[in-house]
Amino acid sequence: MDRARQMGLTDLVIGEEHFSQRLFGEARKQWLADLTEDDREVAARLRQMTFKDFDTYLGIQKGNLRLPYVPQDLPAEAAALITEPQGGPDLYAQVYERHDELRRREGKLDFDDLIVAAWMLMSRFPALLQGIRAQWDYVSVDEFQDVNLAQSEMMDLVAGGCRSYMAIGDDDQTIYQWRGAHPRFILGFAKRYGAREYTLPANFRCPLGVIALADRVIAQNRVRAPKRLRGTREGNGVHVHAPRSGEAARVAIQALNEGRNPDDIVILLRTYAQSAEIEQVLLEERVPYRLIGAAPFYRRAEVTTLLAYIELALADLDVLAGRSLTTQRRERVQAHWKSVANRPSRYLRVADIERIARDAWRSGRTLATTLEAFAEGQPGHVAKPVAVLATWLGFLTEDMGTTPGRDVLLDFVGAIGYRDYLISTAPTTEFGEERAGMVDALAEMAQTRSLGELVTHLAQLHEQVRYEETLRKRSATEEPRLTIMTAFRAKGLEWPVVIVPDCTSAIYSSKPHADAAAGEEERRVFYVAMTRARQELHLVVGDDDDTTRFLEDVKYDRVVHQHDRLDGLLKRGPRSWSAGDTCEAAEILGHYEHEGFVQRWLNPEVRRVLLGRFQSLKAQPAIQASDLAAQELQRLLDLQKYAAHGPVTADGAEFSDWPDLDAVLRARRAGHSREGSQPETTSSAARTRGAQVDALGRTVASAPVTSLVVGDRVRHARFGDGEVLQVKQTGTQTEALIRFEAGTKRMSLEFARLEKLTN
C-alpha cells in the first residue's frame, strides 16, 4: 500500500483504531432512519446485530472476494473473480454495502481490506505490479491449505515473475472453509503453475498406532491428493473410552493421577458447546484448566440469557409464595429483565422495558402478570410476543422444581423462539447452529436436576472459579493447567496427551453439500484432532451404533487392537516370539504397510532379530508345502517388501525351535476350510459373535472378558500379566483397576481386550 501511495495510485490509508466499528454504527443508524413503521421487524433485527458478528461476516466476504464495489478500471479477468456479497441468514449484506460506501468515502482500510486492496491495485496498475515482482526471485507460501480466494489471487500476481514459486501445505488439513479456505487452491497448484509435486509422508510426531488409524480415516475422503501417512515412532498410542457424561475430563484426571503435567494434556472439541459437561467435572474435582477461544460455558451470552429467564421465574415463584424480594435481589432481577426483554425481539421500547421493571415484583405482582397486563392495549406486533412470554414464564415458574428440568427448559426455548433467534441473528448459519448448541448443552445439565437446582449448581461453580481466579492473581507463578480448545485452533500444535470427546455421529459426520470438499470437511477436522498427539490419543466413542462413521468405516477397533498387539510384541522383543507371534507380527506389519517403518526407524538390533525370525520361520519345511495356508505364510514372511526400503540385515540361523508351528498351520488350514464352506469370512463371522480374532484370522478368545473379581489374574497384550485390585460399574460400563509390572491401570472391560488367566 505504501508503494502504491508513493506512486500516486491511491490515497487510501489504514484507518484509526475502531473506525470500522464507528462506520458500522453510522451505517446502521442511516438505515434505521430510512425505515417506516411497517419495517419494525427489520429495525428490531438491525438493533440486535452486533459489530463483533458483523466484523466476522466482513472477513468471510472479503476473503472470498464477495464485494459490493468493483472499480470500473479493474481488468475483466480480475473483475470476473468478484461476486456479490452473500446475504447470510439476516441483513448483513445490506449493512455491508452501506459500511463499504462510508469506508471508501473516508478513504480508509481495515485489516480485511489490506489484501483485497493490494490485489486490486496490482491488477489495475502494471507498473506497481512490476515493481512488486522485481523484489523477489523465490516465493514460498507455508500453510497453503489455509489460503482463501483473495490471498491466492494476490500471491498469483506477486509470484508471477519469480524463478520459483513454492506452496507448502497439506490439503487434508483444510479445515477453514467457512472463511474461504478450500482444498482446490493447493490441489490445483501444480496444474496452474506447471509445478513439480513432492510428498513428505513421514510423520515424526505420532506413535505408529495413531498414524495407522488417522491414515485410514482420512483416506475415506475423495477430494484429496492420493498419499499415505507413514509412521516413524513405535507404540500404539490410541486408547478408546466408553461414553459417559464428562468422560473426557475423567480421562484427563486419570492422566494427571498417573503423573502427567497438566500442560501436557489437551481436550480438543469440535464445538464449544461440548465444554459444558467437561468444565463441570473439572470444576467439581478442582482441576485447573484453561479454555482457549471462548468464555467459560456458564459465562457465554446464550447461557446467561437463559439463566436470566430462570432467575426471573424464580423471583416470580418467591412472590407467589408470599416472600418479598430484598432490594438487592430486586435490582438484580430487574437487570436480568432488561438484558432479555428483547432477546428475542418483542419490539419493546426502552421506556416500556423500564416501566415493566418498575411495576414487577411489587405488591404481589409477578413479572408474568405485569407482562400480561402490559400486553393489553398494545399493538399486535408487541402484544403477541409479550403475551407469549407472560404465559411461558408462568409455566416455567410452575415447573421450576420438576426433575428433570431439561424438557421444561427446551419447551420454554421453543415457545419464545430463542433458538430461531440465535440462528437468524448470527453472521453465518454455522455460527448460529453452534450458538444453538449451547442451549442444548445447558439443557443436558438439567437432565438430572430441576431448573432451580441448575441455577444453584452453576452459581456454586461460578463462585468456585472466582475464588480460584483470585488465588491465581495473587500467585507470582503461573499454575500448570490442562487445555481445552477446538480442533480448529489446534492445527499446527501438539501435545503429549490428546483427548477427543464425543466421537459420535452427532458431532462428527459428513454433511450433504453441493461442494464435495465442503461435505468432507468434518472428516478433515477429525483427522487434524487425531494427529495432534505425540504420545497418547484418547477417543471417547459413542454407544452402540452412535460412534462416528469416520471410525466405524475403517473398523477402528480392529486397527487399535492390532497395534496394541504389535506394541506388546515389540516390547517383549522378537527373540521371545513363538511361530504364532511371528506370523501375527508379520501380518500386522504387512497389512498396514509398515515395512518402511521397520527398515528406517526401528532399533537396528530389534530389526535384525525381527527379520531373522521371519527368515527362519519361512525356511521351515512345513511352510514350504504347496497348500494354500503354507503359501500364504510364505508370502507373509517374505522379506522382499522390506528390501524395497533398504538393505535387509537378517540372520535366521539362530532360530530353529518352533514348537507351535504345526498348531499355527492347522488353525490356518481349518480357517480356509470354513471359508470354503460359507461366504462370510472367519474374521467377520467371529466379529458378529463377539469373538476376538488376531491378525491371522485365529479366534483367540470366544468373547472379550466382561466380568472380573478382585484377585483375578489377567493378561494384556501391551502390559503383560496383572492382578485385579478393584472392579466397579460406571454407568453401563464395567471398569477394573489392574496392577501390572509397568504400573497400575484403570481399564474398561469392553475395550481393554483382556485375557483371563487360570491358576
TrEMBL record:
Belongs to the helicase family. UvrD subfamily. It comes from Deinococcus wulumuqiensis. It is an enzyme of class 5 (isomerase). Its EC number is 5.6.2.4. This is DNA 3'-5' helicase. The keyword Nucleotide-binding applies. It catalyses: Couples ATP hydrolysis with the unwinding of duplex DNA by translocating in the 3'-5' direction; ATP + H2O = ADP + phosphate + H(+). Residues 1-207 form the UvrD-like helicase ATP-binding domain. InterPro entries: DExx_box_DNA_helicase_dom_sf, DNA_helicase_UvrD-like_C, DNA_helicase_UvrD/REP, P-loop_NTPase, UvrD-like_ATP-bd.
